[in-house]
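Quick illustration, no need to memorize.
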Amino acid sequence: IWRATKLVVDNSVEILWKGKRRIIWKEILAGEKAYELTGTWLPPETLKALRTYRVGIKGPLTTPVGGGIRSLNVTLRQELDLYACVRPIRHFPGVPSPVRDPHKVDMVVFRENTEDVYAGLELKAGTTEAEALIRYLRDTYGWNIPSDSGIGIKPISKDRSQRLVKAALDYALQHDRKSVTLVHKGNIQKFTEGAFRQWGYEIARKLYPHQTVSYEECRGSRPQGKILLKDTIADIFFQQALTRPEEFDVVATTNLNGDYISDALAAQVGGVGMAPGANISYENGYALFEATHGTAPKYAGMDKVNPSSLILSACLMLEHMGWKEAAKLIETGLAKAFQNKTVTYDLARLMRGAHEVSCSRFAQLVCENMKAEN
């Protein structure tokens, strides 16, 4: 999928600027390839290069389930403080969907990327450390936790919650979006998820008192030119995202909720193979763009997998770089391929009358569509 993505990106830049601009690509290592070549899953040189060049794009990385190494994706986000996971979710006409009106889905999810249960603060059941913590919690707080429990810590901080909500509000203001919804489980987890909700409203009132209005303040009728700030319980959001998705625009949420929400929304517009992702620190300028699906090792080297997620992530990268024209051109080329039903196997099996093509051929068709536009 990377070769296909690189071909599309390079062609878009060449079509628009005819050699006056180009991207110099530098390969750095992470994951299985890094381990095979260097004996380490995430070499220090990789982190150094990302800090030096500030913008990167990557494919999916394998992380073992239930043991082994710590998630490389989580490590990258924490090492570079990529606190905002940004996932635009929208439907391209012609792409098969399990819902009746996929065109109504047009959301941008801002997921806090560095804390919550994804912070990796866990103790294995039966270990001395887990037993010691269980005893401490029992003796200090009277919490009756079974002695054979694994233990995880869920930190939700004011500073990190508010900078995430600020990023979502900034995006909404800059892109003429109508609302920001805080999604949480504050009805149950009052001092973590509930605090996220409270801190979100606080930062909006502090920084944007004239640009935002709460649902209670306007009774749901948004004044012209203002961002409507509202909140909802996570399980209610999942229901309403199916029954009335047009009521949601920008979504800001905690880490675990955001993981579930972004993948569930992606299913409504064609699956994670159609979903781009960006991990950004708006404070230090680091940005890492990525495919949002898994590694699918059984398809490795078969020239079969849909590259759309990584191609669309490259569009986010180009927008971040200020090359919005290239991003728009690529999206136009993709849209034409979907409308023509010239798609990879995952979409072809769901499209009546589709013509199945390989990953590399799909990229070539996108390039041809872009050239036809210019």
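The chain has a mean pLDDT of 93.
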